[in-house]
Fold each of these.
Amino acid sequence: MIKNKFGEIVYSITDVLDLVMSEQNISGITVDCTVDHPEDVEFADATNDSITVEEYDRTNQQQWLMPVEYHNLDIAKHIIDCCKTPEELQRVGQELLLYQERNLFNLLKYLKYLVDTMKNNNIIWGVGRGSSVASYVLYLLGVHRVNSIYYDLSPEEFLR
């Protein structure tokens, strides 16, 4: 926690999590929710009637608020570096091509950021469900805990 220029005590998100975990009252506190993200992030204007819903969604889906180090992460290299066998490399190469075709690398970067944030804050999430468990890339990122190679799940089940 720090004091701002007005003399108010401002808590970081980590401070707030510590207070919650120790069952302290957090009502009325000031929280710094800023995230160090790239300056060039611009979202589409929801009040602009000249663009379609699809254009609005497409524009905003390319803008992910995450720290700069995740924004600049070479996600393909990171995922490839997680592979331990030629079979894993082949599967990851196949899936990364599918993700690239669909312009989903920013989503993968955000998922890496999300999983790291949950791990760092001891947040528990599920084992995995639905078609997402067919993606070995998501398994390597820690999004789910189902090894799709072991269970012979096709990535097309997820990315169709």
Amino acid sequence: MEGSPDSLLDVADVSRSFPDQGRDHLILSHVSCRLTLSDTLAVIGPSGCGKTTLLLIIAGLLAPTGGRVTIKGLEVHGPRRETALVLQDYGLFPWKTVRQNIELGARVRKTPVPADSLSGLEEELGIAGLDHLYPQQLSGGQRQRVALARALLLRPELLLLDEPFAALDAMTRERLQQALLELFERRHMSFLIVTHNIEEAVTLGRRVMVLGGRPTGVRHVLDNPTFGLPDQRVNQDFFAFCVHLRQILGEDQ
């Protein structure tokens, strides 16, 4: 199947059910979305609505019950090198140093990484000089930066983020959101972020997809008029869009 020239990710009519007491329990129902090159999408919805399930399907770690996921026109049947996944709990090994954690993906794939590429990435993310430390010696924000560095080291074309900043305080969360946007601009990658935080969705999503209902389906896909504005967080349209999303989500309660 050939996609359009600017197409990166196509999620087409994806459903997923899980066995529950001898019966199939439908979690996701006919979900569709699309990402183009150098694009972002924020996925938001109530807790337990299947946001992470959708992310794992896109990552190739979980097969859909129905529908299909294609990346650059090729159907996803398993993990791919050009897609990176960052989890909420960081996924760092406590017995490995910062450098060993960052290099882990490259070593598993037996991909050589030039020293200047690694040091440059650490500078970008503000974790230079921490190579010898262990995760337990880092702050939450530093751990998440290490997790991002590991994901970005192989220069993925698609970055998937599962509530990556949920455990952080408000100011650290905002700093890392800004760091992610700066990386997006410099590296021209695409990313999809799953979040339960409305302000985060509006900050990071060029479009915002709202999931809801039982079973979960796509309620709305909304263009974000404030994405990329230099004064976004103090823009009245930002607050208005957050209120609109809050109203939509409240309809599912």
